[in-house]
Write a structure and sequence with these properties.
Order of helices and strands: EHEEHEEEEHHEHEHEHEHEHEHHEHE
Distance between the termini: 20 Å
Helix content: 25-40%
Structural class: alpha/beta
Largest sheet: 7 strands, mixed
Radius of gyration: 19 Å
Shape: globular
Strand content: 15-25%
Mean pLDDT: 96
Length: 321
């Protein structure tokens, strides 16, 4: 089969190599899946760079989220078990963790449903307890993680403010349903959020960026507001001023979604059932901006790594729906 492999750490476009390799052999409790589509996530870039919290042995195949097909023809969503990731014709996954792909979504959309939307659901609902009528601020609102949070926020009845970088991404955020869109390259984010909320600020802030975005969040979080920290795409990990959180009476919530797979996997299944229902009634639909063949996977990962993508880029294999 064909698979992208990383033999040394570095930038995706430099270290990912397409090769003919043997199909992986599933271990105990695992299954072999034919990959129908693989969604590109920022962690794939971090894996290539050797900067992710998980460091699979070299060589490995990146690709942490797929829509695959079982031997009996079932369409499923899975997180491949590294080192046999999803940027290949076949991948390995834990049998107990397979989830049915929603009928309402095609292969590329289904591949993009899992990590970003589960992260959004757990962050907004379980951690931040977002309520209808509250104001949600989403950083990087046109990106893969942010776009999922925007849709989930709207589905929950929140007023959504999206922060983006550039006019093209601003247009995407408006199409996603953001009530207010702020272009951080052209506007003062803090002033714009205060203007949009009458000086009150945002009740819930969803931050996959870190760095300056987090600093802005602390200046616009409302009384009893909640900042949900889900990642550091900027490359800068903030150092929170806990005295500031005390004085302004807001909460800082960390979310590592992957922990639920080991700490409480039943919640992951329950979340998937709710996401499937939302997809069935059209309340959420992964924004797949590009569908590329397997041969272009490395370029796609590099584009995500550089922050040049909107929504999701999906690697689609032959025969995918």
């Amino acid at each position: 089969m064909q698979a992208w492999q990383v033999h040394e750490n570095g930038e995706p476009s430099e270290v990912m190599r397409l090769a003919d390799v043997e199909r992986p052999t599933p271990g105990e409790g695992q299954v072999l899946l034919r990959v129908r589509a693989a969604n590109i996530n920022f962690p794939d870039a971090l894996l290539c760079r050797g900067q992710y919290q998980i460091r699979p042995p070299l060589p490995f195949t990146p690709g942490v989220e797929i829509c695959g097909e079982t031997d009996d023809g079932r369409r499923v969503i899975a997180n491949p078990a590294l080192p046999y990731g999803g940027f290949a014709e076949y991948a390995v996954a834990d049998a107990a963790a397979l989830l049915p792909a929603p009928d309402a979504l095609d292969d590329a959309e289904a591949a993009a449903l899992h990590i970003g939307y589960q992260t959004g659901w757990f962050g907004l609902h379980r951690r931040a307890a977002l309520q209808a009528g509250e104001t949600l601020l989403v950083h990087a609102a046109a990106g893969g993680v942010g776009s999922a949070a925007v849709q989930l926020g709207k589905a929950a009845g929140a007023t959504v403010i999206g922060v983006v970088g550039g006019a093209e991404k601003a247009a995407v955020a408006r199409e996603l349903g953001c009530d207010v869109v702020i272009d951080r390259r052209a506007e003062d984010v803090v002033a714009a959020v205060k203007a949009a909320t009458g000086g009150r600020g945002a009740d819930v802030i969803y931050d996959p960026v870190g760095g300056e975005a987090y600093t802005q969040s602390t200046k616009v979080v409302a009384f009893e507001g909640r900042i949900v920290v889900v990642g550091f795409a900027s490359g800068t990990i903030p150092s929170p001023g806990l005295n500031h959180a005390l004085v302004k009476n807001y909460s800082i919530l960390g979310l590592h979604w992957g922990l639920y797979n080991t700490k409480n996997p039943k919640l992951v299944q329950q979340c998937h059932e709710q996401l499937t229902e939302l997809a069935a009634r059209g309340a959420i639909k992964p924004l797949v901006s590009e569908r590329v063949p397997l041969a272009e996977a490395a370029a796609g990962v590099q584009k995500v790594a550089d922050g040049r993508s909107t929504g999701r880029i999906a690697v689609v294999t032959e025969g995918a729906a």
